[in-house]
Amino acid sequence: MKRRTVLGAAFAGALATPAGTARAAGPGPSVSRQQTTRLDAQAIYFVSYDGLVNNNSFQKNGLFTYQGCQYAGWYTSTGAAVIGRRVLGGSSWSTVTLAHRLKSSDSHNVISMGVSRTDGRLHITMDSHSDGFFYVKSVAGLLDDPGATPWTSAVLGAVQTSLDGLPLTSQFTYPQFVQTPEGGLQLSYRVGVSGNGRNALAEYGGSGWTALGEWSSSTGTYTSAHGSSTARNMYLHGIDYDAGGRLHAFFTWREQSASVMCSSGGIANHDTGYVHSTDRGRTWRNDAGVLVATTGSSDTVAVTDSGLVVDSLDPDHSLMNQESQWTDSAGLPHAIISYVPGRFGQCTTDYVADRTANGRAFHLRKNSAGTWQKTEIPVALNSSQRTKLVLDTYDNAYAVLPYGRIAGASKASGYSDWALLHDGSGLNAFGEVVVDELRVRADNVLSFMYQETSSGTTPSPLHVVDFALPA
């Protein structure tokens, strides 16, 4: 008999609330720190692209919860890839070291994990930035009944350089595993390079992987006040199913040509766009519901398509890519974006320094009337790095800012009452954190992985901290 997992039950419960039906008013946002556990006393540490390989917030999922256990992936001080597991609430982690070592000091080469609910397998991709990837698939049922199977490298499986024989691409970056409503698993990834790449999907249904193909375009002409660009890539803020089965994706465009910027020291990202799919990523529609792309065809989402932009911004404000998104209980999309507002000037000349000095995060969302609204979060970033968005069971919003600070806003206020709830004290976190998105939905706990600040290449401790959200 097939077991019903904790996450599966939570998902089924979410489906019982039809999309478009608001939940009853509940308590406002709050966080209560529960415990901190240490994954590694000496995790690998090097700063690359202003980030750490163990704590890039776009990892999906570097930390996740399933069937009463939490899983984490990281690299040790020697570069060995490790997967850890603990019982929720437990203080100790059991670890398995994979037969793979980090090949270069590149913070893009993250570990991402996913679960195929149809067969209880753990899937892992790692160590790739515009080149070949590494993949591990566990034995069936491993995650359905974790106490019944020894936690060893044998049950995790061999390290492969394809998806069970499916090669995908030789220019692979940004793997993100997404569970489908039916219990299958999809893998989102980029083909190509920064400034000239396309988003693609592959799908696992239990018997093997299938490449669905590319769904975004790198071609077309974009013209700013300064110049034009004819190549780009779409950077996703996320890719997630809501309770009703709609697939949502916020994004920003990164232009290849620096001529579109007022200064070459900026970053060539512009505009926040949004698309969705009602057929598991086979076709894509803009906010108005107009078909704009068919996956695997020549008609993919392009910068020249109409109706994509939901928040307009030129390339002169150091808009961050790959920030964060969530969908609420009514199936409405929310995102966090961040940039240097115009009140601090109309031309950033050093995107790291300017974002650190003047960057702000914004909560962008679609309300029940179908209108897009944006609220500035009144907490200075003091960092060039990304913020993660989480919504609790009452649809209150939380922004997990760099250094492990947490701000919150209530649904009851229309998300107008953003305030700092936790100042990050005692963490000594480097910057970005990796949020366990599935645990928020499973037991209403905000759990994130962070690494302590170090210097040079001196290894530092890696932790997971848990905060209770309103019950």
Automatic annotation (TrEMBL):
It comes from the Bacteria. The keyword Signal applies. Residues 1-24 form the signal peptide. Keywords: Signal. Pfam families: BNR_4. This is BNR repeat-containing protein. It comes from Streptomyces sp. 900105755.
